[in-house]
């Protein structure tokens, strides 16, 4: 399973306006649900998991978050990508007492056949390139991000 199979144009949100992580996650969850990827329980499960296991990552180019839930809330695998107008605070994976000021969210929805470890490894490879994150932040269209995903991974 490659990222290009999971990130599609209909799952890319640019210029997202949100004042909190909950608002940002609601937008990505709603998109995933509207497109038939997740069940109605997805958003509440996401918030519960985020409270227990933070997903913010402080990176040199920009902070990101990689929220995800267990497969029972997912109909089919996909990754919603949100580029936020203004950063929102997520607690950090490596230090739950600290905040990451997140500008990009990769909201992962993997069904029972989704290989979570493999997908997370590929996503980490993808985002470890500062130029990639910069290109995502500057993207003018969903197509720009799709082309980037197709090239890099």
What is the topology?
Blueprint: H1 3-6, E1 12-16, H2 21-34, H3 42-52, E2 56-57, E3 63-65, E4 78-91, E5 99-109, H4 116-127, H5 130-138, H6 142-152
Parallel strand pairs: 1-4, 3-5
Antiparallel strand pairs: 2-3, 4-5
Helix pairs in contact: 2-3
Low-confidence stretches: none
Number of domains: 1
Q: Give, in spatial order, the strands making up the sheet with the most strands.
A: 1-4-5-3-2
Q: Approximately how much helix is present in the residues?
A: 25-40%
The first-to-last residue Cα distance is 11 Å
Principal-axes geometry comes out as globular
Mean pLDDT: 93
DSSP helical segment count: 6
Query: What name does the CATH topology carry?
Result: Mannitol-specific EII, Chain A
Please state the second-level CATH architecture: 3-Layer(aba) Sandwich
The major β-sheet equals: 5 strands, mixed
Name the CATH superfamily classification: Mannitol-specific EII, Chain A
> Roughly how many Å is the radius of gyration?
14 Å
Quote the beta fraction.
15-25%
Helix and strand sequence? HEHHEEEEHHH
The number of E-state strands comes to 5
Query: CATH first level: which class?
Result: Alpha Beta
Structural class, judged by helices and strands?
Answer: alpha/beta
Domain PTS EIIA type-2: 5-152
Pfam families: PTS_EIIA_2
InterPro entries: PTrfase/Anion_transptr, PTS_EIIA_type-2_dom, PTS_SugarTrans_NitroReg
Protein name: PTS system IIA component, Gat family
């Amino acid at each position: 399973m490659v990222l290009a199979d999971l990130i599609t144009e209909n799952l890319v949100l640019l210029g997202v306006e949100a004042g909190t992580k909950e608002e940002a996650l609601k937008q990505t969850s709603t998109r995933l649900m509207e497109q038939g990827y997740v069940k109605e329980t997805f958003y509440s499960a996401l918030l519960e998991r985020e409270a227990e296991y933070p997903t913010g990552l402080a990176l040199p180019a920009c902070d990101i978050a990689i929220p995800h839930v267990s497969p029972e809330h997912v109909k089919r695998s996909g990754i919603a990508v949100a580029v936020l107008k203004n950063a929102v605070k997520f607690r950090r994976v490596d230090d739950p007492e600290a905040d990451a000021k997140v500008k990009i969210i990769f909201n992962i929805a993997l069904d029972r056949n989704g290989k979570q470890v493999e997908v997370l490894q590929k996503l980490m490879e993808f985002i470890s390139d500062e130029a990639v994150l910069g290109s995502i932040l500057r993207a003018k269209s969903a197509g720009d991000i799709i082309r980037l995903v197709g090239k890099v991974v």
